[in-house]
Amino acid sequence: MLTHQSIHAVNPSRVVILGASGFIATQLQRVLRESGIPARAVGSKEVDLTTSDSAGMLATLLQHEDCVVMASALTPDKGRDIAATMKNLRMGENVCAAIGEAKPAHFVYISSDAVYDGRSSSLINEESSREPSDLYALAHIGREKMLEQSCAAAGIPLAIVRPCAVYGPGDTHNSYGPNRFIRTAAETGKITLFGRGEERRHHIFIDDVAGILQLCIRHRSSGAINAVSGQAISFGEVAEMVAAAAKRPVTIEFRPRASAITHRHFDLSASIKAFPDFAATSLTAGIARSMVNL
Amino acid sequence: MTGGNTVGFAGLSHLGTIYSTAAAMRGFSVVGFDKRPELVASLSAGRLPITEPGLDDATREHRDRLRYTSDSAELSACPLVFIALDVSTDDSNNSDLAPLEALIEEVAGAVSPESVLVIMSQVPPGFCRRLVQKIRQDVAIYYQVETLIFGDALGRAVHPERYMVGCADPTTAFPDAYEHFLAAFECPILPMRYESAELCKIAINCFLVSTVSTANTLAEICENIKADWSEIVPALRLDKRIGVHAYLKPGLGIAGGNLERDLVTVQNLAATYGCDSRVVTAWQHNSAYARDWVLRRLSALGLLAREEDAVFSLWGLAYKTDTHSTKNSPALALLRALPKYQWQAFDPVAALPAEGFPEVRVVSSPLESARNAMALVVMTPWKQFASVDLEAVRSAMRGREIVDPYAALDRALCAKHGFRYHSLGSEPC
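YS: structure for the whole thing
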C-alpha cells in the first residue's frame, strides 16, 4: 500500500534516473522535462552499476535532496540466465551502497509484476506474496528486499512500482503482446497467437507508467504500487484491436500453445486509493497512438 | 410470563442494556450496574445511549422493574448476576479484556456467597476456566453465549432460539436462580463445557462469515457472466442444507467489530496450537476486497478522474441498518479512501465521527444529499431510502449513476427514471 509523504504534489529539486536509455527511463525523462522537473539520467557508460567501483562513483553524483529512480536492469530479452541475474543483483547491491552513503531524499524502484507467481491465476494485489517463478523475478525480488533494508536503515522513503507488461512507441523489448503484434502487423501484415490467445493480461501504456512514476515522485510516496491498466484483456482481443487499427490488412494466425492457459488479474483498489484521479489509457487509444507513425 | 427473582446486570453497554431490558420484559426485577455515573443517570432518566428497534418503548413500559446504579454493593441483593459488558477491540480486531476483568473482580467482590455469576461478554476460549481458578470459590461461574444482532437485538434477547451455557461440569444441574431465569425464556437449553460454549459463539460467527464470503465471491462472478445472484438465492434457500435463513446477500465486507474479532481469535488459536486457519485468512481477504467494491466501481465509471467541483451523494453511514454504529463501516472506509472529494452524506441515525472527514458535509435529507451530485452511492440500505422520490432525485442530481451495492432501491424504477444502476451480483442496467 502506497502512502504519501506529501499530500499535495511537490516538484523535487532533481530526479536522478539510473538507466538512461531504457524504454521506461526514456519516457520518464520526457515527462519530467515537460513538467519542468530537473532530471539527470545516468547510463551505464557513465556509471556501470555492475562494477565494484560504481557505488562510490554513484554516491559522488548524488545530492541529498535528490529523488533517485532506478530503472537500470537487464530485461528478460537480454537474458534470463544466472549471469544476467547476478548482474542485476550486483546493480542492486551497488546502488544500495551508494544511497547508504549519499542518503537521497527519496528512492523509486521500477520493479515488475514478475515478482508475483506467474503460475497462479489468483487476483493479485500489492499484499500478494512475492514468489519468483524464474531468475528474472528472483532478481527483482532480491533488489526490492535489498532496497527495503537499505532505505529503512538510511531513513529514505522507498516507493516500489511494479508495472505489468508495458507497451507503446519506443518499446525496446518486442515481447509477446501489443508491442509484437503492432510490429508484425505493420511489417508483415500478420499477427501470430499461441492457442487462440485466450490468456488475459493487463497491458499498460508507456505514458501511464511514466505518469504513475511522476505521481510517486511528486508525492514522495513510499510503499508498493502495481502499475497496471484497468482490465485484463485476452491476447486474442488485443490482436483484433491491432488488426482493426492497422493501416493494412492483417491476418491473425494461430500456433499450438506450449503451456496451459493462465490469466493474470489485478485488484486495483490500492492503486485507486493511492491516485484516485489517475485514469489509465484505454488499450484502443494506446494501440492507436502506438501505430500512428507506422 | 414468569419471573419474580431479582437479577443483576453488570456493564451497561449494548449487551447489558439489551439483556437487562429483556429480563425485565420477562418479569424479572433488574439491578443494572455500571461504574459510569453519567451513564447510569442517563439510563435512569430514560435516555438510552443506543438505538435498537423497540428498546425505547420496552424500557419505558417496564421501568418499574429496571433500576440502575453505579454502586456495585447493590448487586449483593441479586442471587444471579450477568456480566454483560461488550468487549472492545482495537484497529487490528484484538480484544481488550482488561475492562472486563476489572469489572468481574469488582462484581465478584460485591455479590453474596452462593451467588451465580454468568459471563455474557465476548471472551476467547479458556477465559472462564482461568477465571474459576482466580475467583472466590463460593460463587458459581457460567458462560452464556450471546447471539445478538445489531438492529434486531431486543427481539433476539426476548425470544432466543436456544441458550448455550458453558459450565464447569455440564452434567451438574444449574443453581435454582439460574434454572428459573433460563426457564422463563421458554427455549431449548444446551449445557456444555466452558470451552465449547466460548468457541460455540465464535463458530456461529465463522459460519455466518463463510456464507457471506461465498455469496460475495459468487455474486462477483455473476456480475461478469451476466448471471443475476438474486435469481440464484431463492434456490439456495430451498436447499435444506443451506436453509431459508442463510446469510446469502453479498455485501461490502464484514463490519461491526464482533465478526472480525472472532476471526482473529480463531487465527490466534490456530497459530498457538498449529492448526490450519488459511480459510479464515481467505475470508478476511474477501472482506477487504468486498469493502472496496464501490471504490472500484466509481473508478471504472471514470467518476474519480474528477472535475474540481464534482460532488458525490452518500446515503448511509452506519455499518448496517437499524443501528447507530459505524464500527468498521464500509461508508467510512469509502470516505477515508477518497478524502479529497466532496461528499454530501445523509444517515437517519448514525453520526459522522468528529475528526477525519473535512470534505464531508452531513445533510438532513436524502434529497439534499443528492443535490448537484455526479453519482449517488447508497452505503447502508435503510428501508426509508426505498421510498425516496426518484424523480426528485433525478432532478436534483447532475449525474445519472446510482451505485447501490445492497439493492436498497428498486432497480427497475431507477432504470425507468433514467439512472444507470449498479448493485452487487448483477451487471449494471
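YS: worth flagging: DSSP finds 16 helices and 16 strands in chain B.
IM: good catch. Also The mean pLDDT of chain B is 95.
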